Amino acid sequence: MNDKLPISRRALVGSALLLAVSRKAALAQGFAGLGINGGGFAAVIPGKTFAFPADHGPHPDYRIEWWYVTANLMDPAGVAYGAQWTLFRQSMQPGAQQEGWANQQIWMGHAAVTRADTHRYSETFARGGVGQAGVEAQPFRAWIDSWEMRGLDPMRDDILAPLELAASYAAIANQGTHIEPYMIERISSPDGQVLEQHFPTAYTSSDPAVAYVLTHMLEGVVDRGTAYAINDLPLDLAGKTGTTDDFTDAWFVGFTPRYTILTWIGYDVKRSLGQGMSGAVAALPMWRGIVEDGLKNGWIQKGETFAPPPGVVFRDVDYYSGLLAGQGSPKVVKEAFVSGTEPAREYSARWSTITTLPWYQQRPFYIPKEGEKMPQKGGPPPPPGTPAVPANPPPGGEGN
After folding, report:
1. Is 149 within 8 Å of 14 (Cβ atoms)?
2. Neighbouring residues of 125: CB distance < 8 A, sequence distance ≥ 6
3. Residue 263: in which H helix or E strand, if any?
4. Which of 50, 81, 251, 282 could form a disulfide with 55 if both were Cys (CB 3.0 to 4.6 A apart)?
5. What's the CA gap between 287 and 297, in Å, rounded?
6. How far is C-alpha 338 from the geometric centre of its chain's CA atoms?
């Protein structure tokens, strides 16, 4: 290929076309050299009704089947390409599926990219039964080693790729400006001629003041939450740990005033990392190591702080009630607010009692903000003998 024309690698995400190839169990099946000994395998029955999405999955009773996607692509220079990705399953013998390396399924992946003057391809093989290759029907996923074709399912936890997650948090760090991530900024020839130049794509995703308030909230994760282990690093930090069910994925996405960094740990297939391997345990230490390297080598500056934009105010608030800090507040934190949304009432000693009550007894003292959704009526009844709670705070008292 002409090295001066860059080719971007993009994930091929599409639906699968499944073909079970067989006529009668006793007839030859002539694909991939499997033209003899077809007995014992299931036969295709004319007029069969398929049931999707289940039939997007594998049918190990049949000898051969495959899943594929094809695409027509065009690069930034206007050059047209064809792309193809296929996953084949071939059974070496009929019968019940064996476990582990004794499994009789052989998988082959084949990928190709073509243009008018060139054809490039690659292929790989894997054994079934050990997680190296396979197909899942719902949500759809076909894979072999690191190659993967999958359908989009908003309920699936791994649809949100780490790069997408990092880009979302970078928009918070950028005070509401989202910049589409990219891998290559510029391609130059040996003599300095620019052959390809990327120009960032940006758009406003939120008001700067709102983004800063969210940043300040995420600083709380570092100051007193699950990321407290990096609290001693000498600059402002914000971020969030994350852990999926069964400890299959763990991550920490955090940012300094200059960089957004995400560390993720997990397997290519859904598999537990081990009991207790949360984002704070598995991913946060790696993140800390990256920032420590930046501080040591100068690409992260000690003492950098998050600068608030116009429209943000700070107030000392009571940690437990969210009211303005007052005399007797057991724990005081400084919080950021969009101007005009800060609390107006002040903490007093009686709130130490109110905040220990069950929610249905605290509720009459709580004044929701405009548009805030409140729990529906009909919560658990108060225990027998519980005194009635007034519908509004008594005169001279405080609400929120």
Report:
1. yes
2. 106, 107, 108, 109
3. strand 260-266
4. 50
5. 16
6. 28
**Domains recognised in the chain with CATH numbers:** 19-155 (no CATH), 162-188+196-297 (3.40.710.10)
Task: Identify the three-state secondary structure at position 221.
Answer: helix
pLDDT in tens, 336-363: 999 998 988 888 877 777 777 887 777 7
If pLDDT is split at 50, 70 and 90, which confidence band does 241 have?
very high
Query: Which residues, 6 or more positions from 7, have their beta carbon under 8 angstroms from its beta carbon?
Result: 1, 75, 81, 113
- In the numeric block, which tokens belong to residue 376? 């529906």
- Please give the order of strands across the beta sheet that includes 19-20: 19-20, 64-74, 80-91, 105-115, 118-127
Quote the CA–CA distance of 342 and 107 in Å, as a whole number.
60
Which residue type is seen at 311?
G
User: Would you call 130 helix, strand, or coil by DSSP?
Assistant: coil
* Amino acid identity, position 216: H
State the first-to-last Cα distance of the chain, in angstroms, to the nearest integer: 67
- In this structure, the number of other CB atoms found within 10 A of the CB of residue 269 comes to 15
298, two tokens: 């100068």
CA 380, 381, 387, 393 dihedral sign is positive
